[in-house]
Structure formats: structure tokens, C-alpha cells
Amino acid sequence: MEAEFIKLYEENPEIDKIDKIVDVLRSGGVIIYPTDTVYGIGCDFGNVKAVQRVCQIKNTKPQALSFICYDLSEISAYTKRLSTPIFKVMKKVLPGPFTFILNASNKVPKVLNAKKKTVGIRVPDNNIPREIVRHLGNPIITTSIHDEDEVLEYSTDPELIFEKYRNLVDVVIDGGYGGNVGSTVVDCSHDELELVRSGLGDFDDLL
Description:
The chain is α/β, with parallel strands linked by helices. It has helices at about 15-25, 50-60, 70-75, 85-95, 110-115, 125-135, 160-165, and strands at about 5, 30-35, 40, 65-70, 100-105, 120, 140-145, 170-175, 185, 195. A 10-stranded mixed β-sheet has the order 1-8-2-3-7-4-6-5-9-10, sandwiched between helices. The protein is globular and about 45 Å long.
């Protein structure tokens, strides 16, 4: 069945459309959505079959996936040993274009941290994925949509994304053109800030 193409505006995402997307996620669906960096593909993080679908589409392993939380309080439920200095750093820059690698709590589904004890977590500065998470009641999986183009690393046009993935996913959200720079990845699992990948977020803002 072909994916549904849903237009949403970041400033004021329509609740009825958000609820429709949440219903798709709860039934094991896979969606493509905008963030504050690049478009992502994901699902309800607790649905094993949906996670496996995402991995098959992206040709990746569950342990390589991150997830999107609504805010810092939700992050604390899925991490352990979050020190005060690290919490203050995250509070300063979130929502924002950072992925923080943190020690996973036992609330993180086993499919995501079966072989490691850390998890990558995002709170993007975009109301669309955050409202989806808020209405869903738990995080969604996120991994970036990449492009085979030699110049553009990421797909930015939602209509072209739809053409490519219309038979692979259940919903493609048109939130306008996406960016072409991924999030900055920072490892905080040892209570220190270690830059893993430079991206849209300025690492100096964390120091």
C-alpha cells in the first residue's frame, strides 16, 4: 500500500493530523518526518517489528538508531547516571541540533541496546516530531534519510522523498524543505563531552 503524504506546518501542527500519524505508529507503521536538521525515518521505539522494518529500509542495525524525546524530563526516564554538569549542558542547547550519547536505563527497549549500554537521544527544535512524541507518549526511533547524490548527502525535498519511499513506509510528512547537515553527535556516557561528529550544532556552545 502506498504511503500517505501529509502536510504539516512546524509553527502549528494540526492535532487531527498528529493523532492520525500517532495511530499509524501505534499500529506498527514507519514514518518519514522533518527535524531541525535533516529528514528522518522512524517508528514507535517499542515496536520490534517496526524497528526491524526501519533497519531493513536503511540497511542498518538497531544499535545504530537514536530516538527523539519531547523534552529533558522524558530523556531522564531512559538514561541513568545523568550528572548535573551534563544535564545543565543539555538544558542549555535543547531543543536543538544535537544527538547526545548517554547511558541507557532499563526502560530502553532491548532491541535498541542489546549489545551496548548507551543510546543516542535527540530533542529536535522542530514542533512536528516533538508533538508526535508527546501525543504518542514515548520516544520515536530516528535515523537520517540519506541521498545517493554525490553532492547532497541528505534528501531535502519532501516530494522527492515521497517518490523514493512511497512504497516502503506508511506516512511521509511534508514539513517543508529539510536541511543538508546532520546533528552534532556528542558522547556524554563518561560524564565528559566528547565530540563524535560535527554537524549543525556548534560544539563550542556546550563548553
